[in-house]
Amino acid sequence: MTGTANEQARKTAEGLVYATGFGNEHSSEAVPGALPLGRNAPQRAPLGLYAEQLSGSAFTEPRAANHRSWLYRIRPSAAHPPFVRVEPRAVRSAPFTECVPDPNRLRWNPLPAPEGPTDFLDGLWTLGGNGDATQRSGMAVHLYHANAPMERRVFSDADGELLIVPERGGLLLRTELGLLRAVPGEVALIPRGVRFRVELLDATARGYVCENYGQPFRLPDLGPIGANGLANARDFRAPVAAYEDVEGPVEVVNKFCGSLWTATYDHSPLDVVAWHGNHAPYVYDLRRFNVIGSISYDHPDPSIFTVLTSPSDTPGLAGVDFVVFAPRWLVGEDTFRPPYFHRNVMTEYMGLIEGAYDAKAEGFVPGGGSLHNMMSAHGPDRETFDRASAAELVPQKIDDGLAFMFETRWPLTLTAQARDAGHLQRGYDDVWQGLQRHFRP
Ligand SMILES: [Fe+2]
């Protein structure tokens, strides 16, 4: 059954078309004439649809920060039964209070395969995070491992937007605003409050999720880089309107202030026939990232690799940045080329989508992750240090891996399940043992 479902999802995903551009005011209708012209809420919306605004920002936020979409749907979202709180499986939320914050450097192997049929939502497993979902500040790191599609079930997250980073297996994301395909090497973003369902393109799917409670991700400013570069706005793709007209029970799971709440609707809420606005999901291919780097000397700070940033009230200080280490050339002269040793006031969670990362010779594997909390000392392992210190500095192409980082302004506190996980590596500190003293005054 699942194989057939995968095949159908793959066929659907192959034929998808998109609108392009980051943060655009998109307009889309799945049925001609469904989108009203010249106004948002006519006395009678076209085709007997209901008009509904979905706000991702306060009405009064500055225009550049204002997020909202108008949805034209078969039934209004207000028509639903009461939600009932359910026990979450492995999803946890901020504030994270199960553990004390840990200054140690930590590293995990991939999340183990689930036992029995497990969809994306049941397969979500929270590693940790910071902030407070009710204050709309901070973030959480989740991983997922799924082997079944979400069937007659949709999810929405009132606590934050979800940046999904597939590592193994493709996803078909059926959202209120339309369909997206996201395969390893791409990332997908589901905005706060947008309902969606995840189908699988392959037998299993594994990856990472950054749940961002704070300001929506935006493209970083470019400063002296100029008008182009890093993630180019035109490479982001938004869905076009696509609706399902499904009667019968559909479970709607709503993450609200850290808890999961469920209600059984008598229809699918993915019934938006037309929409316009800028509060919309999107997908981005990380291989489109225009990598900027040093062409003289020194390893630049990794902020140069920022794809998306969630700003805070302090200029330049992100609630969370999403950073990618994409294929690039290293040409620095008289330079230690891998990432340098450092201690960072920001907290770094790193994951690996494929291949290897240039600061770690081994142990950091696709699907795994490392956590270097605020001010923890880290950098290249001994083997990498020895090799890079002696390497002949010819131009070198780094193209054997795709790593990323969620970098956040606050320390990250683990969940108990992450602290006690069987897939937490023991002895990660050892990678920095044996770094010899060379100072002989
Ligand atoms: Fe670091």
UniProtKB/TrEMBL annotation:
Active site, UniProt feature: H299
Domain Homogentisate 1,2-dioxygenase N-terminal: 18-286
One MF term in the entry's GO annotations: homogentisate 1,2-dioxygenase activity
Binding locations of homogentisate: H378
Cofactor (UniProt): Fe cation
Enzyme class (EC, first level): oxidoreductase
Pathway: Amino-acid degradation; L-phenylalanine degradation; acetoacetate and fumarate from L-phenylalanine: step 4/6
Subunit structure: Hexamer; dimer of trimers.
Name listed for the protein in its UniProt record: Homogentisate 1,2-dioxygenase
Organism: Streptomyces bugieae
Gene expressing this chain: hmgA
